[in-house]
Design a protein that fits this description.
The chain has 730 residues and is mainly β. The protein contains 8 helices and 37 strands. The chain has one domain. It is globular, with a radius of gyration of 23 Å.
Length: 730
């Protein structure tokens, strides 16, 4: 779960400031787990006319040395250890019985007070008050088809799996998807893994990351924010990452020590399969974020929202760095004063990981870039009317608020014998990051790059001075804005919830009975709400055919002419950034861009897989006519919207989202319902197949909820989310 916008969090007695594009909260040791990420920046939304331009460079085009290069032992604990996981065929064997609602205790207090943008934020012109506008129907405003569009579909993991495996439930289920060697792998919070047959999507083995990473024997626990990838090099290997808490489920409860800010308890687990068999043994390493730097809050630093990708020579790993101890926040304005220290980027020697080398081996190296403190990445140029003056994370009136966040590495479309890695400049890797830091919207995107990554192979990192980290700001792009406020996106301003079709919500109808509101006096029933979009940041980036593909949510006004009317919905803005010019001149070019929006409906968490004749964007579709469903559209780098102007529903939702985050804190505060935090799309060139996944509501509501709160094993007691796993040949 990610967040970098901010709000005040309190328990009714003491208020403290927490970073939000990734606020993680948890219940105490006796409570059922809840992970809540709440963010709200009450700034006016804005839009500029669509401007198409070539990319322009604002930072040093030749890059600069990263923060650190050298032994991987600087950031990794000693190891690795080798673990052979236990494999079962179903998730329900983990616990002997599923708890009932009678055993559940009240949830923890809900944060309610929003933090407005800093007082020094520029005033916006009064004429800039609405989101971008698209004509409907039109190239960026698409009809919704009930057809699956040729996709093969399969239900994935769901809330009941989580409940039956661990005895508690979470929202959101941070889903990851990867594919290779005839398998598709889905991984979810809190550490569940399901394999599928790549050809048929028939479900196969079920594994627990608690077991796969050997956490139980260490007295540690899985803590979410899952990523996975399959790499074909060196015979083929699976990479799986997640946050690990150095506290056990028994001693600290779900996600305990790390997320309640205990000293030196947050790690990033990195599991690498010994062979290409995902059910075989794994080499397991642990990155220690508190050994990486001396940023504010060292010892209490959280490695949030980590994402991974591979190049020919490196495993790229990103996370956002949060300080979980408010007592160590500097006084604003200053670096780290909001508890956020910026994006952190790593490049590890991939061969060393796949060979299971010791972290002290001279062949195991790392390059590290602290994007919060590097002067070469600041100041960020002014961009009126979004921002009236240059901004920096560590100086000036917005210090601590304007820091690079969610800078996501690009996954290469590659398979045996058909690698699409970029091997220019001694091995290159790409990343994308958005720029709407304080809720004013923006029309820029930054492309970042590693070069010289083959130097990681040098013994003792002796040639690592040839590694560089650089960036280029692309300006004049499609404007975007989505602050994710806890109100329907149709209201504009900072509202950002996707609407969902009205329907039965048995948990909401009995929220007093189930004691989930957390604020007395308890109410007997709670109303259906929407689902959150997480704001305007990139969640997945792909690289294929000399293009970088990325998308983010944005509010969009749909303008209808017959009859004349307008509606505001959540849609997506996307960009296709060419790298062939980078390979020759170190300058990126804008190949294509556009908006995607569903007529009268909302889209949440877009993700793109580029490659083949067409690319594919997957997302959750919801709205007045649809329960949350898995949907997709196909397009090309220059098509300016989806092909045939149609959106296909791969997996139709069967009921409204009816999880505890819909109602937690009601009344008096409006809830910010959680959704899946990211979708995934993966292209495999050897079979010309795109595998894709998102959250949807898998099963209909039942009528005997009080006596049968799992509805016959089709939902969790406090959550009803499901996931889908799909494939298609574009």
């Amino acid at each position: 779960m990610q967040s970098h916008k901010f709000r005040t969090v309190g328990n009714g007695k003491v208020g403290c400031l927490y970073p939000l594009k990734s606020l993680k909260k948890m219940a105490n040791q006796t409570m059922i787990l809840s992970i809540l990420m709440i963010f709200l920046a009450s700034a006016p939304l804005l839009a500029l006319p669509t401007v198409h331009s070539q990319a322009t460079s604002s930072f040093t085009p030749n890059g600069h040395p990263p923060t650190f290069v050298g032994s991987a032992g600087k950031v990794l604990l000693t190891g690795p250890m080798t673990v052979t996981p236990s494999v079962v065929t179903t998730s329900t064997s983990a616990v002997s019985s599923v708890p009932t609602h009678a055993s559940m205790l009240p949830w923890m207090p809900y944060p309610t007070k929003p933090l407005h943008p800093p007082a020094t934020a520029p005033a916006l012109p009064q004429t800039v008050t609405v989101p971008p506008v698209v004509s409907c129907p039109g190239p960026s405003c698409d009809a919704v088809s009930a057809s699956a569009g040729g996709a093969t579909t399969q239900p994935g993991l769901n809330a009941y799996d989580s409940l039956s495996s661990y005895g508690f439930e979470i929202e959101p289920p941070d889903q990851a998807l990867c594919a290779g060697n005839s398998y598709v792998m889905e991984v979810n919070n809190m550490g569940e893994l399901r394999l599928f047959n790549a050809a048929t999507l028939a479900p196969g083995a079920y594994l627990s990351l608690q077991n796969l990473m050997g956490l139980t024997g260490l007295g540690w626990s899985s803590a979410g924010d899952i990523s996975c990838i399959y790499d074909y090099a060196n015979g083929g290997h699976w990479f799986i990452t997640e946050i690990v808490s150095e506290s056990s489920l028994a001693n600290a409860g779900p996600f305990g020590g790390c997320f309640i800010g205990l000293l030196d308890t947050c790690l990033e687990g990195i599991a690498v399969s010994v062979t290409d068999n995902p059910t075989g043994a794994y080499y397991v390493y642990f990155l220690n974020p508190n050994a990486v730097n001396t940023d504010p809050g060292q010892g209490y630093l959280l490695n949030d929202f980590a994402k991974i990708a591979t190049t020919k020579d490196a495993l790229m790993l990103f996370y956002d760095e949060f300080n979980l101890n408010p007592s160590t926040y500097p006084t604003c304005p200053a670096f780290g004063c909001y508890g956020f220290n910026g994006a952190q980027e790593f490049a590890f020697t991939k061969n060393a990981l796949e060979a299971g080398l010791s972290t002290s081996s001279p062949s195991f190296n790392v390059a590290y870039e602290n994007m919060g403190t590097d002067p070469a990445l600041y100041p960020i140029p002014a961009n009126p009317p979004f921002q009236s003056s240059p901004a920096t994370c560590f100086s000036g009136p917005l210090a601590g608020a304007v820091c690079w966040y969610a800078v996501i590495p690009a996954e290469s479309a590659e398979s045996a014998g058909t690698s699409q890695y970029d091997n220019s400049y001694g091995g290159t890797g790409f990343m994308l990051g958005a720029l709407d830091y304080i809720g004013l919207g923006d029309n820029r995107m930054s492309a970042f790059y590693w070069t010289g990554l083959s130097n990681l192979l040098s013994p003792g990192c002796s040639a690592c001075s040839g590694i560089n980290f650089g960036s280029q700001l692309l300006t004049g792009l499609e404007a975007y804005m989505d602050e994710g406020g806890a109100c329907s996106a149709s209201g504009g301003n900072d509202c950002g919830l996707g609407q969902q079709k009205a329907g039965p919500v048995p948990l909401g109808a009995n929220c007093g009975e189930f004691s989930i509101t957390g604020i007395p006096p308890k109410v007997l029933s709670c109303p259906e709400s929407g689902i959150a979009t997480n704001g305007d940041s990139v969640t997945q980036v792909s690289y294929a055919q000399d293009q970088i593909w990325g998308a983010i949510p944005t509010l969009i006004t749909q303008q209808y002419t017959s009859p004349s009317s307008s509606e505001t919905h959540v849609g997506a803005a996307y960009w296709v950034i060419g790298t062939a010019s980078f390979d020759s001149s170190r300058i990126f070019t804008l190949t294509g861009q556009g908006y995607a929006t569903a007529m009268h409906e909302d889209m949440e968490f877009p993700a793109i897989a580029g490659g083949g004749a067409k690319a594919l964007m997957v997302f959750t579709l919801s709205g007045p006519d649809y329960y949350p469903s898995t949907a997709f559209g196909e397009f090309t780098a220059t098509s300016n919207g989806f092909s045939a102007h149609v959106i296909h529903i791969a997996d139709l939702g069967m009921a409204p989202q009816d999880g505890f985050t819909e109602y937690f804190g009601y009344p008096p505060a409006a809830s910010r319902p959680r959704w899946g935090d990211y979708s995934w799309a993966v292209y495999v060139p050897s079979t010309n197949t795109v595998y894709f996944a998102s959250n949807y509501i898998e099963s209909p509501a039942c009528g005997n909820f009080i006596s049968n709160p799992t509805c016959g094993g089709t939902r969790g007691i406090n959550a009803n989310w499901g996931t889908s796993v799909n494939s298609i040949t574009p």
